[in-house]
Amino acid sequence: MKKLILPLIALVLILAACGNKKDSDDKSKKEATKSYTLDSGKKIDIPKDPKRIAAVAPTYAPGLKYLGANLVAVSNQVDQSSVIKDKFKGVTRVGDNDVEKVAKEKPDLIIVYSTDKNIKKYQKIAPTIVFDFNKHKYLDQQKELAKIVGKEKEEQKWEKDWKAKTKADAAEIKSHIGKDATVSIFDEFDKKLYTYGENWGRGGEVLYQAFGLKMPTKLEELTKKEGWAEVKQEKLGDYAGDYIVSTRQGKATPSYEKTDLWKNLPAVKQDKVIHVDATSYWYNDPYTIDFMRKDLKKKLLEK
Question: What percent of the chain has a predicted confidence (pLDDT) above 70?
């Protein structure tokens, strides 16, 4: 009987130890993670203090970097911006479908767009945050990034300082150009003409949200749904404001600026066109918007 009891006791002790270890592991995991609600409404567990972030979606990489996050992989698209490309020295660049390259960096958190076709593959590598770009204005976007890396206080200080700066800028600009002056943004891509609203880069966040400047009514209606829209060149006059921000890549003159229609716009005739470098104006992170704030203020006050 004793021979039978001793193995049973040993088995019970082993099972108890296994149970305690599982409980301990579960507790450790719970202490090391936090719940995060995706734009889809689904909740996932992410590291409380992520140490190796892969920002496959380029929009969010500089905002995370600004908050002091450690990035081990970023989209190679960041190199197109003269403002932020130097912020990622030594960080691995990845393309849209470089899933294996991302995996080699052993990230503990991955950030992608909701339109990324490799989401399921990334989810097998590490917890993956899926952002719907359309759901976040630039300040909300930075709040979310701060929430992810536990830097809410730092973000609040930055936002407070940003609002104070741009409030003063707005007063100075409106005093110079008029509080009811309208501003349009035009950009050429693949020989097509586009215009942008308040949250698609190209200066919209700064002009319309931070400075509180107005869009022409028709332009506001046109960009209301998608945030951007293609404009037929013959309709250019319908969307041109009192001031125009025209983006350029390099020194090449956009084709729409060579037309008689363009040359006869009131803003063009009155020298109220501001030319900006397109690649420096694509993003809406703290580095980029501060660059645009200074650049746009200087150029608007010169007109």
Answer: 90
